[in-house]
Write a structure and sequence with these properties.
The protein has 7 helices and 14 strands. By secondary structure, it is an alpha+beta fold.
């Protein structure tokens, strides 16, 4: 699976992890952005590094990151790197473990390569379309095992643990998902990798606020793993849009439960505001 882009993305992820963990033992400075999310000094330091690294190595590709200015220049590029410098900044600031660096390579709107690095856990997930998904844990790399079968009644749902409203509670109740089948995490990247590890089987991202950098890297890994990633209506997610938002949320589903999940969701689209 030799690929110059993947090798460089893994290098950038490791270097970003070093920057992030350099702030781990400190009271890292942070502030709230306009959307009320947290940005820390670690996010910004990684952002500076990422922008310099990719612009020098791949000047013909576009770049979209959470913390840099969104330039329309990327829209005319065939290949685009999409990066979340620190997914789960709030968890990182609270010294919780659900945070990661996310990097995806996109061609013609589709995820081709993905890297998800969790530096505090010292593990990296990576994938290239058509070659399967891999995990490097403490310097040992392995291909992720084939998916185990799962039925709807036994499926575990990845839940956004930091969500404060009642929307997900209502959605789970309507779909007949008890609390015992929920597993929470703080960042979307971590939540998607729980599905990659078969710790969970489903994510109901019932939100119009997800950004492309939240999902692109995990999408590439999960799709290479044989797991479905669509919007909540079952339609493809497209990346490198002018407005980089996933307007119709995200549905991550093990193939054994995708059909029944979409059928159940279809009953409630007009009953619960996304």
């Amino acid at each position: 699976m030799a690929d110059e882009r993947l090798d460089f993305m893994k290098y950038v992820a490791e270097e970003a992890g070093k920057i992030i963990m350099g702030f781990w033992g400190t009271d890292v400075r942070s502030q709230f952005k306009d959307d009320k999310s947290v940005v820390t000094e670690a996010d910004l330091r990684v952002s500076d590094f990422v922008q310099k690294a990719f612009s020098e190595k791949f000047p013909d590709c576009g770049l979209l990151t959470e913390e840099s200015n969104n330039s329309d220049e990327r829209l005319g590029r065939k290949g685009v790197f999409i990066v979340d410098e620190l997914d789960g900044s709030g968890d990182f600031k609270r010294k919780e473990s659900d945070f990661c660096f996310l990097c995806a390579y996109i061609e013609d709107g589709a995820p081709i390569i993905g890297v998800v690095y969790e530096p505090q856990k010292n593990r990296m997930f990576f994938a290239k379309k058509g070659f399967g998904a891999y995990l490097t844990l403490r310097d040992k790399t392995m291909k992720l095992n084939p998916l185990n079968p799962v039925e709807w009644k036994d499926s575990i749902v990845g839940h956004p643990k930091n969500y404060k409203g009642d929307k997900y509670k209502m959605l789970y109740e309507m779909m007949g998902i008890p609390e015992s089948r929920l597993l929470g995490s703080g960042s979307m990247g971590t939540r998607m990798m729980q599905v990659a590890l078969q710790q969970t089987h489903l994510i109901l991202g019932y939100s119009k606020n997800l950004k492309e950098w939240d999902t692109a890297a995990g999408h590439a890994v999960l799709e290479a793993r044989g797991i479905s990633v669509t919007d909540v209506y079952g339609k493809p997610l497209l990346y490198n849009k002018e407005n980089p938002v996933t307007e119709n949320g995200i549905l991550v589903a093990h193939p054994g439960i995708k059909k029944v999940t979409l059928e159940k969701l279809a009953e409630y689209h007009d009953k619960l505001e996304m």
